[in-house]
Design brief:
5% helix, Immunoglobulin-like, 4 domains
């Protein structure tokens, strides 16, 4: 009986276990399904500024990552679809050369060697019942490039016409332009007074010869900069320059008359004497011309060979001339100040006979006061005179001073005036100080002649 009771207990227990197992196998009423776990995106929306040609990785970090499926769209259009895997996933439909991929062990989007076309809005979306998204903005930046820098008429314009400079630039963000040009003081930025500016052009009206030279277009946008240059040539009629407008010589003394032509177009140079053309075959005159410079060598044989010689240059746009006087009277130049001394230079192949320094007070219509300057003892054809004035010669005030010289032929012309200011200094006498070009100092009078 005891054994039977024990066996009955075991059978019931086994039956109960079997019933529980059966209930479990049939999906018993007490067991519930596990709820779905929603993934979240941990990355924040970002604005990416990337330089053209670089790589960019748009982040989309999700949690949990295993098994999560994400979809990338570009401006609302499906762009890439993938999950986290142990190897890179490459796009096949949109990108060529595998530029677009999802790197291994991530759901980020990697774009290599970005182009301007990649600039757009990108959205990363987790594909689940409760969808979540983030949105990135990708801006591709490009260093400035100068597509074309040009000038009207290929940079060759006629004086008085208009000049248009155009600089077509590219880049992202759009570059700004600075205009500049070479001047005597280096590269200087152009201002509104120099021309009219538009978005990418510069308009210069009534062009002058001084507008010729190199112009620069400088483009910048914060990513980089670029510069280009162009040379502008301004064509004009010739302009003749002579270093000396009056030259002293003597019979049988050779004189060289010089002129130069400043212009941007080829010019033909001719010499005239008293209005008559000097022929190249002349035995009395020798013309030597090289580029823009011309010399006329004259050896007078009589008084009639002196006179007015004219250098004239002409081209397709016009002509211009300057005259030189070949004379026998003295030529006085460079009335100036050298420290405490009044200085000037005399040119004369003929013996000097008289030197006069003339002064007149400017406060009233005073009379000219003449001071005879001693003649130099040395005979030459060029004299440098250094002459101070004693304070006993002049009262305080402002004076106009000029010099003229006589040789055996004639008197010279008066020099252009110099202006002298004499100030009274109390009991100690006068102070003689220069104004503008000249000065006279308080000291003993002396004369210095230097033979050149």
């Amino acid at each position: 009986m005891h054994r039977r009771q024990t066996d009955d207990y075991d059978v019931l227990a086994d039956a109960a276990i079997d019933d529980e197992a059966q209930n479990d196998g049939d999906g018993g009423n007490d067991a519930d399904e596990e709820p779905e776990v929603s993934a979240v995106i941990l990355t924040q929306s970002t604005h990416y500024n990337i330089t053209l040609g670089d790589n960019v990785r748009l982040e989309c970090k999700v949690s949990p990552a295993d098994g999560t499926v994400v979809q990338w769209t570009k401006n609302g259009t499906m762009y890439f679809f993938g999950t986290m895997k142990t190897q890179d996933q490459h796009a096949t439909s949109y990108a060529q050369n595998q530029r677009i991929s999802i790197p291994a062990n991530s759901t980020d989007l990697l774009i290599k060697n970005v182009t301007i076309a990649d600039s757009d809005t990108y959205k990363c979306e987790v594909l689940q019942t409760n969808r979540v998204t983030i949105e990135h903005t990708l801006n591709i930046q490009e260093k400035p490039k100068i597509v074309k820098f040009s000038a009207s008429n290929n940079g060759e314009v006629v004086e008085g016409s208009n000049l248009m400079l155009t600089c077509v630039v590219g880049g992202s963000p759009p570059p700004q332009i600075i205009w500049s040009r070479d001047t005597g003081n280096g590269n200087e930025r152009l201002q509104e007074k120099d021309g009219e500016f538009s978005i990418n052009s510069l308009h210069i009206k009534n062009v002058k010869t001084s507008d010729a030279g190199k112009y620069y277009c400088y483009a910048f946008n914060g990513v980089g900069n670029k510069q280009a240059e162009i040379t502008v040539v301004v064509k004009s009629k010739p302009r003749v320059h002579v270093p000396k407008a009056i030259i002293n010589s003597a019979v049988n003394v050779e004189a060289v008359l010089q002129c130069s032509v400043h212009e941007a177009a080829p010019a033909h140079i001719r010499w005239y004497k008293d209005g008559s053309l000097i022929e190249d075959t002349s035995s009395q005159f020798t013309v030597s011309t090289r580029d823009h410079h011309s010399n006329l060598t004259v050896t007078p044989t009589s008084d009639q060979d002196f006179g007015t010689f004219t250098c004239e240059a002409d081209n397709d746009l016009g002509k211009h001339n300057r005259s030189i006087e070949l004379v026998q009277e003295p030529v006085v130049e460079d009335l100036d100040v050298d420290g405490p001394k009044l200085t000037w230079t005399i040119h004369s192949h003929q013996p000097l006979e008289q030197i006069e320094l003339q002064l007149r007070q400017m406060s009233a219509e005073g009379q000219w006061k003449t001071i005879n300057v001693p003649l130099p003892d040395i005979k030459t054809h060029e004299y440098e005179i250094i002459y101070p004035l004693s304070e006993q010669d002049l009262e305080p005030g402002k004076y106009e001073a000029t010099v003229k010289v006589k040789n055996e032929k004639s008197w010279s012309q008066h020099t252009p005036p110099a202006f002298v200011d004499i100030v009274y200094r109390g009991n100690s006498g006068h102070i003689i100080r220069p104004t503008l070009l000249s000065a006279i100092s308080t000291t003993l009078m002396y004369l210095l002649v230097r033979m050149l």
